[in-house]
Each structure stands twice: as structure tokens, then as C-alpha cells.
């Protein structure tokens, strides 16, 4: 069973050290077609064939045997893969240490096969930034329902009702009795809204969420926002149309649509900030060469990458220096290694430096800059501070 993506899970994966034993990391895209199992097996075999020379080059006999054992394990797993409701699959294997982990995602991964000392978790780190944990709260005068949405899955967390009388007209002297009843009903509505706000805050305290979406009648919107805890209200990002009888699948679809719009708006704002700041010689860089220079200085705070971007480059396995084309390392003088995709190496370096990684799924102005850029901790000019 594929595990759900969480920060603790990624941290544990990143901390796993194979030592002298290689760790094989595989990223794949899945399809829901009838022949999905056969298709993904063929894709994996193509991936192995494509990278065979690189995988086994300069390896000891024991390392080659361990990698082949990992490949066999992945093959066996994919051969028995049941029909799944996910589009992306990450697999990590270290046969020598009996380590095997799988993680499913709603979006497909760019196919990758990486062998290193530790699991290659940079795509998962980026995914954690891409996917927001969202609380969806539906509230009316008497009822409340709370869902949690994350990585394409929606789960109902809580549902409850409060005893709030209906609003009715009642005859009485000068309307006094009707006003008194109306005030009583309003007090009970406020109590109900406060109860719903308490449930939301408890959810935030226990499980946490990044964004809050509300489905609430227009006349209750302001009163409900007013009773939300400050930490919860700060995460309110938008509203969807839903009621207590709206099917969960429909709520999920509307949540996904709003989340996608907000994410695209965030991405565009981030790209604009990177390019404009870099153009003004501020703390940002745009383009592959300048981004690698910033990483060499450990200056990157947020690495921004177009999903699927691929560029050849070089890196020094001794000191970690990154570049596009170099005969020997300018830092330590050792011979550099060729990288089929230096952007993947850049992501691993950024993660090791504690930087945030953001993947862009749509075309953006960053595509004119090799699909990569970064916000930096300080201005970087020509490889220097």
C-alpha cells in the first residue's frame, strides 16, 4: 500500500543512509487505463535501459548486484500493482538493508531513476510545497461539516448540529415578543458559529492546515469570520458553493478547482518576484548558470524550477561544485562528473542547504531563463557576493 506524503515521512526518508550500499530511487507517472500495470512496467524497463550505462559505471561488483536486486524488487512491485487512484508513484529501495518504501501522489512525476547513497527526495520536498493541506468548512445556521483535503484526497473530519430555532414571525404587543424571540435565535446562531470556529481551531491545533476554504451563506459570512481564531482566520483563502447535502465528491472537485487557481496565482507572483528582483540586481537570480553560481555560494533560499526542465551539466563529487561545462573543478582541482540533468543535482544541493523548492507546472516567464531561478539570501553577482 502506497503511503501518503507527509513532512515527517519525507524527513525520515531523507535521513536514511545506505552507507556503502546504494539506494535506488524511482519516480513514475501512472495511468488509470486497463493496461496500466503493463504500461508502467514497460516505462520502468525503458528507464532502466536508458540509464543502464550511468547506473553501473564505475561500480563495484557488490554495488552492481545490489542495484540489480533493487531493480528486481521494483519490477516485482509494479507487476502486482493493483488499480490505483493516483497518477504519481515514488519508490525507494535498498536491498542490502531490506529497505523498500512507496509513496503515491495525485499528479504524475517526471520519470527518473537515481542511484545514490540516500533516497533522492528532492521531488517530494518540492511536492510538499506544491500541495497545501486544506480545511474545508461548510456552515449553515444549525449544522457544520469539516473536511480535510490533501494531495487529491478528501476526508470528513467532523460533523455536528446545534439546536437553533427557526426564524418565525410571532404576533405580540408592538412587536416586542417577536424582537425578543429574534434576539434569542440570534444568540443561539452565534453560539453555533462559535462552536464551529472552536472545531476548526482544534483541527488546526492538532493536525494543522495551510489554507481554509469556507462554504457559508452570505448573511453568516461576516459573523462567522468574526468568531474565527486569529491563526485560523489568517489561513482563510476563499469560498466555495456548497451546502450540507452537497456530495463529498462535488465538494472535492470545487476544492481542487479553487486550490489550482490559488496555486497558479502564487506561482506567477513568485516568478515575477524572482525575475524583477534579479533584473534589479537584488537577492535573486534567473537562468541556469546564475542559479548554479548561487548554489555554489550556498545563497539560495527558494529554488524555483519548471517541472520537467532538463539541462546537461557537471558537478564535483568531492566538493559539490556545480557548473554547465568545465574540465576540472575550479574549487578543488578534481575532475568533474557529467550530469544528464544538472537541474536534478541542483535540487539535491538546494535541499541539502535547507532551501525551499518550488515546481512550476504551467508555462511562465521563467521558461525564458532555462526554467530555473531562485530567491537568494543576498545579492549574487557573477559567482560572487
SSE blueprint and pairings:
Blueprint: H1 7-15, E1 23-29, H2 36-56, H3 61-79, E2 88-94, E3 99-105, E4 112-116, H4 122-130, E5 134-139, E6 143-150, E7 153-161, H5 176-206, E8 211-216, H6 218-227, H7 230-233, E9 236-239, H8 248-279, E10 284-286, H9 288-296, E11 300-306, E12 313-315, E13 322-323, E14 337-339, H10 342-352, E15 356-360, E16 372-376
Parallel strand pairs: 5-8, 8-9, 11-15
Antiparallel strand pairs: 1-2, 1-4, 2-3, 5-6, 6-7, 10-16, 11-16, 12-13, 12-14
Features:
385 residues; alpha+beta; Translation, Eukaryotic Peptide Chain Release Factor Subunit 1, Chain A; Nucleotidyltransferase, domain 5; 60s Ribosomal Protein L30, Chain: A; five-stranded mixed sheet; four-stranded antiparallel sheet; globular
Structure description:
The chain is α+β, with helices and mostly antiparallel strands and 385 residues long. It has three domains: 7-120, eRF1 domain 1 (Translation, Eukaryotic Peptide Chain Release Factor Subunit 1, Chain A), CATH 3.30.960.10; 134-246, Nucleotidyltransferase, domain 5 (2-Layer Sandwich); 264-376, Ribosomal protein L30/S12 (60s Ribosomal Protein L30, Chain: A, 2-Layer Sandwich). 40% of the residues lie in helices and 23% in strands. The protein is built from ten helices and 16 strands. The strands form four sheets. Strands 7-6-5-8-9 form a five-stranded mixed sheet, with helices on both faces. A four-stranded antiparallel sheet has the order 3-2-1-4, with helices on one face. A four-stranded mixed sheet has the order 10-16-11-15, with helices on both faces. A hairpin with a 2-residue loop joins strand 6 (143-150) and strand 7. It is globular.
Amino acid at each position: 500500500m502506497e503511503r501518503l506524503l507527509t513532512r515527517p515521512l519525507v524527513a525520515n526518508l531523507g535521513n536514511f543512509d545506505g552507507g556503502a550500499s546504494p539506494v535506488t530511487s524511482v519516480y513514475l507517472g501512472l495511468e488509470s487505463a486497463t493496461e496500466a500495470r503493463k504500461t508502467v512496467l514497460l516505462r520502468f524497463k525503458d528507464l532502466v535501459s536508458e540509464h543502464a550505462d550511468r547506473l553501473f559505471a564505475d561500480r563495484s561488483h557488490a554495488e552492481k548486484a545490489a542495484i540489480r536486486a533493487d531493480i528486481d524488487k521494483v519490477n516485482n512491485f509494479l507487476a502486482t500493482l493493483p488499480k490505483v487512484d493516483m497518477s504519481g508513484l515514488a519508490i525507494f529501495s535498498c536491498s542490502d538493508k531490506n529497505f523498500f518504501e512507496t509513496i503515491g501522489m495525485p499528479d504524475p512525476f517526471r520519470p527518473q531513476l537515481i542511484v545514490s547513497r540516500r533516497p533522492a527526495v528532492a521531488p517530494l520536498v518540492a511536492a510538499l510545497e506544491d500541495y497545501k493541506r486544506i480545511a474545508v468548512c461548510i456552515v449553515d445556521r444549525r449544522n457544520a461539516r469539516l473536511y480535510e483535503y490533501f494531495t487529491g484526497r478528501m476526508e470528513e473530519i467532523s460533523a455536528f448540529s446545534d439546536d437553533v430555532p427557526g426564524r418565525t414571525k410571532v404576533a405580540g404587543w408592538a412587536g416586542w415578543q417577536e424582537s425578543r424571540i429574534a434576539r434569542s435565535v440570534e444568540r443561539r446562531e452565534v453560539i453555533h458559529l462559535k462552536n464551529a470556529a472552536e472545531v476548526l481551531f482544534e483541527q488546526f491545533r492538532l493536525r494543522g492546515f495551510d489554507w481554509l476554504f469556507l462554504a457559508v451563506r452570505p448573511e453568516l459570512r461576516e459573523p462567522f469570520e468574526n468568531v474565527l481564531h486569529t491563526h485560523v482566520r489568517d489561513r482563510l483563502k476563499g469560498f466555495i458553493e456548497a451546502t450540507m447535502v452537497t456530495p463529498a465528491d462535488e465538494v472535492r472537485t470545487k476544492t481542487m478547482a479553487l486550490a489550482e487557481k490559488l496555486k497558479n496565482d502564487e506561482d506567477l507572483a513568485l516568478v515575477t518576484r524572482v525575475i524583477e528582483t534579479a533584473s534589479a540586481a537584488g537577492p535573486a537570480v534567473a537562468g541556469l548558470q546564475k542559479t548554479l553560481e548561487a548554489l555554489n555560494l550556498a545563497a539560495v533560499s527558494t529554488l524555483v524550477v519548471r517541472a520537467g526542465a532538463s539541462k546537461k551539466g557537471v558537478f564535483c563529487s568531492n566538493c559539490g561544485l556545480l557548473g554547465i561545462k568545465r574540465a576540472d573543478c575550479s574549487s578543488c582541482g578534481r575532475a568533474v562528473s557529467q550530469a544528464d540533468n544538472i537541474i536534478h543535482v541542483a535540487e539535491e544541493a538546494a535541499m541539502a542547504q535547507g532551501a525551499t523548492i518550488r515546481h512550476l507546472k504551467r508555462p511562465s516567464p521563467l521558461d525564458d531563463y532555462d526554467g530555473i531561478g531562485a530567491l537568494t539570501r543576498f545579492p549574487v553577482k557573477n559567482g560572487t557576493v
